[in-house]
Design brief:
alpha/beta; 8-stranded parallel beta barrel; TIM Barrel; 451 residues; globular; disordered N terminus
Length: 451
């Protein structure tokens, strides 16, 4: 896909710096999470926020050949991914997930700290990016792959034609395609509250929820479930639901599942899954383990309790590991300190050491809530390095990639955004990284950086 326009000079300057070592340290589609009364007291969840009219989806996407899959064995590590970011360079305007709902921030303005003004306490190391940009997807998926992550779980609002849902959907399609090209698995966490907005906008009648959900599932069956990169888990394609928040009638879900030939394995939020007869529940952000902590052992015990209170059967639980929580929504959400990576290390440790088969890494890039695992100016590569360490420990030290290798995809991204290098040369480097040939990829990157 061609870039719509070049990044502003200041952003190009910031991108060029990526060749250096990393720093040390109520409407629907903005899902800020806050306390939910019917949940355990320490879980954060999504609430409504205003939406605005979206531009037309990007029309073309990069075509990929299936890439090599690294089978690490052991735990399935899947990272929750937000495909909702827009940039002026790629889609003609800055999206509100960078600017704020009222355009309070201007990413083209560089502050005294040398960083763009975005709606977050934190800043992506590669600069603000577009979720449909294949260069950004290449960088991110390669970073995940070299960290030992198996794939992505896209936060998805369905196929409804209102507000920014088409843009999110288009970026999710781009992510799905890219997952195949980089040998990564893909699954979906469906936001059933999207149906609520369709009802409010008179684009869906509440009595037609079964038909709507059935059409959504049938679309997923044809376009995603049947493809090799879609994750199969516990015998079926994995479908997660952040809720249910709106479609709470188990009969509606049952009817939709019966309409597809390949019934998905269905997981809903830990405190809601039994209400819709799901196959299991998944955890999210829990604050309680770190409230008035006594020592590390006590923290680990409390994390285990948060991961298992809703079922003692590990087959019914997908647990979570997360770096912290500090949002920008001004709703009084509790802060969970990042603690120089210790929060991530402890929550991941408990997940890795117990019997759960899958860990959801929460999240790759929710900058509004400060749960991002991807490299940032504030934390560098800390969280990906922790994931590497956990994978290396799991495999008895047999893990081929290093923290230095994690830096290579961002350097490739910076070279792509320079715009003066033949794409085929960069594609060759990407292919080397995709195959895990980091030494040769580094040599190629260094030669191009010197030009």
């Amino acid at each position: 896909m061609a870039i719509v326009s070049r990044l502003p000079c200041l952003l190009l300057t910031a991108l060029a710096c990526l060749c250096l070592p990393a720093c040390t340290v109520p409407e629907l589609s903005e899902p800020a999470r806050e306390e939910v009364p019917e949940a355990v007291p320490d879980v954060t969840e999504k609430v409504e926020a205003p939406v605005e009219k979206a531009d037309a989806p990007v029309e073309a996407r990069r075509v990929y050949k299936p890439g090599p899959v690294f089978d690490w064995g052991g735990k399935m590590l899947m990272v929750h991914y937000m495909p909702w970011y827009e940039t002026k360079a790629f889609r003609g305007k800055w999206g509100r997930h960078w600017t704020g709902h009222k355009r309070e921030h201007n990413p083209e303005h560089i502050g005294a700290d040398g960083l763009p003004d975005i709606w977050s306490h934190y800043h992506p190391l590669i600069g603000p990016y577009d979720s449909a940009d294949p260069d950004a997807l290449e960088c991110q998926l390669l970073q995940m792959k070299l960290a030992g992550i198996n794939g992505v779980i896209a936060d998805w609002y369905g196929i409804g034609k209102t507000d920014d849902y088409p843009l999110i959907h288009d970026a999710t399609l781009a992510l799905f395609d890219a997952a195949s090209g980089y040998g990564m698995k893909f699954a979906v966490c469906y936001e059933d509250r999207a149906a609520e907005l369709l009802v409010k906008r008179n684009k869906l009648q509440s009595q037609d929820l079964t038909t709507h959900l059935t059409e959504t599932l049938q679309w997923m069956q044809e376009e995603w479930f049947s493809k090799p990169q879609y994750l199969r888990y516990q015998g079926g394609p994995l479908l997660m639901n952040f809720g249910p928040m709106y479609i709470r009638d188990p009969g509606v879900w049952k009817a939709a599942f019966e309409s597809v030939r390949d019934r998905p394995t269905f997981y809903a939020l830990h405190h809601l899954w039994r209400k819709v007869a799901a196959d299991g529940g998944f955890t999210w952000i829990h604050h309680a383990p770190w409230e008035d902590p006594d020592d590390k052992k006590t923290i680990l015990v409390r994390i285990g309790e948060a991961f298992s209170y809703f079922t003692k059967n590990p087959e019914e639980a997908i647990v979570s590991a997360y770096p912290g929580f500090k949002d920008v929504y001004g709703r009084g959400g509790k802060v969970l300190a990042h603690r120089q990576g210790e929060t991530m290390r402890e929550s991941l440790q408990v997940g890795m050491e117990r019997d759960w088969k899958m860990i959801q890494l929460v999240t790759w890039n929710d900058y509004g809530e400060g749960t991002m695992i991807e490299p940032t100016h504030e934390f560098g590569y800390t969280f990906l390095e922790i994931i590497q360490e956990a994978r290396r420990k799991e495999r008895g030290g047999d893990f081929p990639f290093t923290s230095d290798d994690l830096r290579l995809p961002a350097r490739l991204y910076a070279l792509r955004k320079r715009g003066d290098i033949e794409p085929a040369r960069l594609d060759d480097i990407s292919s080397l990284l995709n195959r895990g040939s980091c030494v040769r990829a580094r040599q190629g990157i260094e030669r191009l950086e010197q030009n």
